Amino acid sequence: MAANVLSHPHRFILVSDLDWTMVDHNDKENKALNAFNQLWESKFAKDSLLVFSTGRSHALYSELRKEVPLGNPDVLVCSVGTEIFFEAAGTSPEANKDWAAELDQGWDRAKAIEIAGKFSELSPQASSSLPKTQHEQRPHKLSYYVGVKGDEAKGVISRLQDALSQAGVRAKLIYSGGVDLDILPEGASKGKGLEFLLRQIKEAGNAPKDGVMVCGDSGNDVELFAVPGVRGCMVVNAHDELKDWCNANASPQIFQASQRCAGGISEALEHFKLISQ
Ligand code: GLC
Ligand code: MG
Q1: What pLDDT digit, counting tens, does each position of 38-92 carry?
Q2: Ligand 1, from 18, 20, 22, 56: best to mutate by most atoms within 8 Å of Cβ?
Q3: Ligand 1 in contact with 176 (CB < 6 A)?
Q4: Which ligand sits nearest to residue 239's alpha carbon?
Q5: What is the dotted CATH code of the domain comprising 107-185?
Q6: How far is the CA of 179 from the centre of ligand 1 (A)?
Q7: Could you list the residue ranges forming a coiled coil in this record (predicted)?
């Protein structure tokens, strides 16, 4: 497993969210993304690791690849940190089983669905363009749309958290983009998925000498920024969910970019002097 990624050291690891971080859906020509791809290929690809960490399932990630010129990640993390693919290519690659087994502990998926079903403000996400088996309800991620906004949404989320705890379901709720609500096992998140990956890399004796930088724009990215020792790049178009966290945890390790999406990532690589000569 993962022989290519773990078998030798990398200088640096870049971990990026996709929608509205690597990919600017408003940039029809993908100018900033193409420029980032070129920078990565010329200055990083030979000695560094590219990790995509997305809220999307593998099926929806494959859809995105058809729409925009994404580079090839060395490791792909899907479904808000819950599915890690060391071999990202192919139509149905297998998610890492050790990570799935860790997430299984104390997770009662059926009970979580039953409890969330009692909240009239929540409607389950489904992707109409894909077969049912490929939609966004995953083994360790249940996803809903929240039909109310602002404080009302916060109220719903906190009542759901209480109901889950009272029923003994150890779950984590993640609110993103002011509309998506993910219910995950308590020990899951993009951050926890990254910690699992970094543990594998360190155990193989391959800690990256120039460290790790994470990039994001919304609520499901917050825990990436909280991984001990990483640098962070928040793109200028970030949502309040991430902005508020970055403001409350301001440090020289967190860079608030002045550019949107991939433009902000390139800017951060320059800011932290990570571009090899
Ligand atoms: C992606 C996923 C969706 C999830 C959202 C926020 O859009 O497709 O299921 O709720 O990310 O994490
Ligand atoms: Mg995003």
Answers
A1: 999 999 999 999 999 999 999 999 999 999 999 999 999 999 999 999 976 666 6
A2: 56
A3: yes
A4: 2
A5: 3.90.1070.10
A6: 10
A7: none
